[in-house]
Amino acid sequence: MPISIPKLNLTRAGCSTSTAATRCTGRCAAIQRACRWSSSTADPARVPVRPIGGSSILPIIASRSKPLGETIDNTTPHLVADLERLRQHLDVDRWHVFGGSWGSTLALAYAEAHPARVLSLALRGIFLCRKKEIDWFLNGMGWLQPEIARDFVEFLPQAERGDLMASYYRRLMDPDPAVHLPAARMWSIYEGTCCTLLPNPELMATFNIDGVALSVSRLECHYFMNDIFLPPNSLLDNLHKIRHIPAAIVQGRYDLVCPPLSADDLHRAWPEAAYEVIADAGHSAMEPGIRNALVRVMNDFRRIGADKAPRRASAE
Closest by alpha carbon to 90, among 2, 24, 4? Predict the structure, then answer.
């Protein structure tokens, strides 16, 4: 049964936070889903948490920037501060933090800034926003998806192809929809095509929606251009602050968008975290193997903060 939660306007990052919840029959812990680019893609119905034994977990879901793709005061420190304001607004002492792709980046950044407020971390499709990861996104995915990568490059005039990110950034930030929308659609289709192991028409239809395309492309490019507004290698360098927190990393073996090397680097630096590579999955959280693994992780973590002693998650 839904619980009504007041809306919170997070004006510092131009965001309005939408929340959703399900009622528990027993004690519950809260989950914060560190959402993807503060975009319109967050869907409470798609959070992979399943009730067990008649009780369920209380999810707190997602923030959305209004207008979509707003970049003013939209930085990683702003978003971390917004998440902390949301926690205080909801009077949650500590919560589980869940994030995939950019959400894994934001989840790590939040946990490293506020480790005392985090019960557990569930991370999927790891993205640490290092230069080699950004270069892979722009130039590497074409080794395995040459057709859509060619379209991505050839969308730009020949004279603009020397620096793909800077050229797309100029177009995506242009106030004229006739300029920014075609670039946004191309960027979004490029990424969406590479998100799943097998073609997924439903996912591609979502990436084709103008609002989704604009928020995904503009904000990704905004953060890439600014190295996510954090010092180089910041997320790995600050792992000592969260090493004690129960954590699980779920990674698709054939993830083209956030390749497994980043998840492997994170786990090697943080061996205390459980690590599971899904052999038959790409990037999307809706890949069956990834979804099943995340359900197992979250159902394991539900013991934490619900009058039971914490224990580390284990991957099957």
Answer: 4
